[in-house]
Amino acid sequence: MSETRAVLFGVGAVGSLIAKHLLKKKGIRVVGAVDASEEMAGRDLAEVLETSPSLGVQVSRNAETVLKLTEPDIVIHATSSYLHDVFPQLSVILEHGVNIVSTCEELSYPYYSEPQLAKKIDALAKRNEATVLGTGINPGFLMDTLVIALSAVCQKIEEIEVVRVINAATRRAPFQRKIGAGLSVKAFEKALRAKQITGHVGLAESISSIASALGLKLDHIHRQPIDPIIAQRPTSSEVIHVETGQVSGLRQTAIGRCAGKDAITLRFSAYIGAEEERDAISIKGLPNVTQRITPCVNGDIGTVAIIVNAIPKVISAPPGLVTMKDLPPVSATMGL
Amino acid sequence: MSETRAVLFGVGAVGSLIAKHLLKKKGIRVVGAVDASEEMAGRDLAEVLETSPSLGVQVSRNAETVLKLTEPDIVIHATSSYLHDVFPQLSVILEHGVNIVSTCEELSYPYYSEPQLAKKIDALAKRNEATVLGTGINPGFLMDTLVIALSAVCQKIEEIEVVRVINAATRRAPFQRKIGAGLSVKAFEKALRAKQITGHVGLAESISSIASALGLKLDHIHRQPIDPIIAQRPTSSEVIHVETGQVSGLRQTAIGRCAGKDAITLRFSAYIGAEEERDAISIKGLPNVTQRITPCVNGDIGTVAIIVNAIPKVISAPPGLVTMKDLPPVSATMGL
Asked: Which of A211, A301, A327 comes nearest B155 by C-beta?
């Protein structure tokens, strides 16, 4: 296979991490970079990433020009969690007939929150013979695709519970702030009301994806309010100190209900000082399946990996909007 | 979707278990059954399965007639572990243009042991517009497809180790005998030489499948000799008693080597009295991934499940020979 030509769309926190990994990857060449930021505009990508040497790729605010000049095989899209926000960006890319792998959380299973936009994206992609995938490790893998894959060994399933516990101290500083670590309970609740703390986006998408794959018609998805986790003793990360009684992070639960019962329960928590970091899946059925990844998969490293690992699968998939459960397993390359 | 019409090819130990599960399954109808056994010939399938009421499906020795009369959407094939033995059976089915899900271990990744037959099967399937898959939980899922799926979260992989430990007391009596439980060490070694004990078939197929998915070119696969596990204290299952010093089961290891290093190591053991039953995957890379299913997935229940769960994916796949890593994740149906 000849070299895959990739354009980055979004060179923010996650986009930069992806870019750095791509630059080390064989068989892929970064041929362009788009970002809305005025600060980055016109600068060499290497300068923005604080790497050297210069890459000869200028960050541009004009997606159309970059797409026209570089004719990429794939756009790596990393700008926002919400499909409504990114729809115009995706449209431009698709109109140029270019495949997309996006970190947009809602795009991992867009039929739940944005069924109309999902239809439009699918039609646009098919018309322009391009494929679109939203992925990441969560949503996109740990709390949905991996659950679907594990279900293969079951003759019967009654109930599913998935738990992800993250020690936020192992994550980027912005992530630690995003979950309210170090705030008083009062400040946390204020930030929550002001939508400065939004919590994890994707639990409902993950539940919908599992239900769809397993042919389960849900009555509804109940999203419990985001809860602060209160430190029982002082704890700290490299960037934040949390006193006893302050908030160390948050917990969120969402439940897919069917026929008056809890069918699919997802529990997510991220806080500084979490002791038993894990990604755990319990399936109650025939047989019961109790699976555990310890410690949990690091969100930044894992998301960068899965986005880049998905590229060949997206390029070879038939045109249209796809989700992870529609594709053969995305996998790493193991070179020596 | 209208009802899927299934024909059973092989109504032995595993075939019967699959049949019983299929009969309870909505959306699938068993319309025919083929078996080489003279004893079964002409008897109603229900009688052979020791269920009631009568099913109006006679077990036949003549595959051609059954396929012609029943026009199935899928054949569930469960006769032998070796592709060379089953090739004539698969050919007949494919010549009738019928899709196949098979328990044949070597068919899970036939390019390793039978590359020529694999080519022939693929051509035959394409010519007759049918799809062929060999699967099961091992080989087919626990020590290969699940490893490939988990690799998605890794930016880099150096080494993979997969361990499956089975307490044979939880399995069928023939399985317990097949692993030599209750024999003296001398009798075990004699049975091994006489090929009465063949051990688990599939480790090399699983390694090859992982290497292929991860783009790793192996130098060779080293299969260690099958080792007896000697009971350190008396132990027993419902059907076999093992004295101290007798064989309680066996262990097998296979290693995929690359550039002078162990890249992919698979360790399989099955014995009466195994305390820590598990399916464990360790990936050394960025990040490290340590995953564990406890207890291990029951082989009989799991294989029946995955064979039946694979049916819709095989029916909707493009024609040809496929392996699990080429298909979207096989998943259970979760109905209430």
From this structure: A301
